[in-house]
Amino acid sequence: MAVFSSKPQPVLEDAEPIAFGQHGLVLEDMRGLDYDDAKWELLLEQLSVADMTNMIANGGWSTPQVDSVGKPATTDLDGPAGLNSLTSNLKGVPFPSQVPIGASWNTELVERFGQVFAAEAAANRVVGLYAPGANIHRTPFSGRNFEYYAEDGLLSGKLAAAMVKGCSSQGVYCYVKHFALNDQESDRLSISVWANEQSMRELYLKPFELAVKEGGTTAIMSSYNYLGNTWAGASYALLTQVLRQEWGFEGMVVTDSAMGNTSWMDVNLALPAGGDMMLCLMGVTLDSSTNAMQQAMRRACHNILYTQANSVAVSVAADNAPYWLMLLALVDGLIVSALVLLVLGGRTLKRRHKAGIVIGITVLAVLVALVLIMRGPSQPALQSSAADSIAASSDSASSAGSLPVEEAPAEGVFLQLDGQGEGEQSWLKSHVTLNEDGSFALYWDYNAENSGIEGDKGSWEKLEDGSIRLSGQREFTATTQDGSTYALEILNEETGITCQLSGSLQ
Predict the structure, then answer these.
(1) For the segment 280-300, what is each residue's pLDDT rounded down to a tens digit?
(2) Do β-strands 453-462 and 413-420 pair in parallel, antiparallel, or remain unpaired?
């Protein structure tokens, strides 16, 4: 019981101030360097306090761009059964859940699965996956069992390690989740878990230990729950003494979603304990006024950047034009050149004139082909940080972050309901369209870059009291006082934010 009964790390009031400097280094220079390489200290000195705050506070499904160290914005997405974006329309191949994968007992197969999963992620410019789940099936009634392998910690750990190795081979890092003892879904936002250290080490921590020691993961996601009376994401014993000092973990620890009703997930407690980044879209209140906290912030940024440097983050950001598009443009140019040669074959022109004409037309054809191709439909704009997009569009959130407002009733629409969260949560917008054919669709606007994201769809019916019942994946009821104006309350399950919507009959 020595580790988990120890007191939290004390905050040193007399910590040394951090140094700043410009050394001309960029993130790409750090790829392959040891975690303790002296170059890291030079790179970290290039970060301002604002840079560090941005990286730590805005880690929701992305990491932000940091120009001072040449770090690109990156995208992280949910797994573990395929790419599943909650902030864009990107969806990947639907793979089996972790339950049948766990039943295979086949580490070689799971590693190959990780390679395929990560290859698809990298092709879509996704560099981090919120997967695999490494909690256990403590009870068959847990609502999150589909994300976990088995009831056995050893089997779960071996398979999690294989998954991490497969993904890492493609340059994609895995946030092994949820660290730790997050073995039930009911009341997970408030539950305090009690266990002795033997059971923790033999059962609940074992999958994470193997993912670190055998899989070499460079990312971990902490959990919502408390360990006794300490939030897992602020447990120095868990995140520093066990994870880093005992197991030798090198990389970043992100929280579970820190939006909505998650006030106990305090970044000012997480950083000194060994946490690094908040899974949040709107930032958090970080007190960076003391030397001790700035030291903790620098350590967190070291961990974040180490994970990013040893991934495809930089190469994915630079590869904006797929090679096959360039090859297609070149082929188009060669075809045009061949046609020109046929036309000029019978003309009485000097050879050098013919060559000049062919070269000129070829170059022009290639340029035109590239322009036409690049103007066509492109992949989802996943490279921009969601947090950066929100910050850039905060002054115009009500217009840029919402679906276009119809000045005249849209054809086929029976009722349009629009609304948003309250107070500081008003950045989240919601829209429900009830069509005359009896169907409805729910959309969310997270920011200007990620608006119109489908949340639900189904059918609606009008009840005897004038209210309208909407039935999709969930059921909602729009109420009315006068039979023409309706109000609807909808909870965004991912953020925990409730939006109040209203609208009048078309």
Answers:
(1) 887 788 999 999 999 999 999
(2) unpaired
Instruction: State the chain's maximal CA–CA distance in angstroms.
Output: 95
If residue 301 lies in a helix (H) or strand (E), which one and from where to where? helix 291-309
**Separation between Cα atoms, residue 203 and residue 183, nearest integer Å:** 11
Is the N-terminal amide bond of 132 cis, ω within 30° of 0? yes
Q: Which two tokens stand for residue 82?
A: 């395929």
Residue 262: predicted pLDDT: 83
Strands (E), 70-216: 74-78, 128-130, 173-179, 192-193
Model-level pTM?
0.70
Pairing of strands 173-179, 128-130: parallel
Question: Do residues 465 and 451 lie in contact, with contact meaning Cβ atoms separated by under 8 Å?
Answer: no
Helix, coil or strand: residue 59: coil
Ramachandran category for residue 347: left, alpha or beta (phi over 0 → left; psi -120 to 50 → alpha): beta
* Distance in Å from the first CA to the final CA of the chain: 66
What is the SS3 assignment for 454?
strand
Element (H, E) at 230: strand 230-231
Find the helix packing angle between 351-375 and 323-344, rounded to 10°. 140
Residue 182 and residue 193: Cα distance in Å, rounded? Answer: 8
Q: How far is the CA of 450 from the CAs of 417, 429, 454, in angstroms?
A: 19, 11, 11
Contact call for residues 191 and 232 (beta carbons, < 8 A): no
At 319, list the tokens: 């590869």
What are the tokens at 100? 């049948």
Question: Which residue(s) pair with 233 in the sheet?
Answer: none
Distance of CA 361 to the CA centre of its chain: 45
In tens, the pLDDT along 115-141 reads 999 999 999 999 999 999 999 999 988
Mean pLDDT value across the chain: 85
